[in-house]
Design brief:
two-stranded parallel sheet; 135 residues; alpha/beta
Length: 135
């Protein structure tokens, strides 16, 4: 199956940052190096051919027993082009942190706090990273 416009643009712009991609029936996913998450997300939001201006969700997956143990998962939507993409960044248990994407999408605030609360992942640069669900 042909690679989507989004995945093509990402791999052209960030060839050294994209670890893998998947595209099947409109389900587009890119796994990126965690160190580049802010640059990748800013590009996805600002590139005129993409315009992923809505972060629908951010969550994490715990692969206990594997390394890296965690994946932070971003679900993005382009209102203009009616496209979705999933961006994943792997986070190790020994360095359980990743940059906050609040500078890109302010709506990431509570999603990042939830992932911090439930998984212990620290979002560097988050303005108020504290528990919201657990005591």
């Amino acid at each position: 199956m042909d690679t989507s416009v989004t995945l093509k643009r990402l791999t052209e712009r960030f060839s050294g940052s994209i670890l893998e991609t998947h595209s099947h029936r409109g389900d587009d996913t890119a796994v990126v190096k965690k160190e580049d998450i802010l640059d990748v997300c800013t590009f996805l939001r600002d590139d005129e051919a993409l315009l992923y201006n809505f972060m629908m969700d951010l969550t994490a997956v715990d692969y206990m027993g594997k390394e890296p143990r965690f994946e932070v998962v971003y679900h993005l939507y382009s209102l203009k082009y009616n496209r979705r993409v999933r961006i994943k960044a792997r986070v190790s248990e020994s360095d359980c942190s990743i940059d906050s994407v609040i500078p890109v999408w302010i709506g990431a605030d509570w999603f990042e706090r939830e992932a911090f609360d439930l998984y212990g992942i620290t979002f560097k640069g988050h303005p108020e990273l504290r528990s919201i669900l657990l005591y």
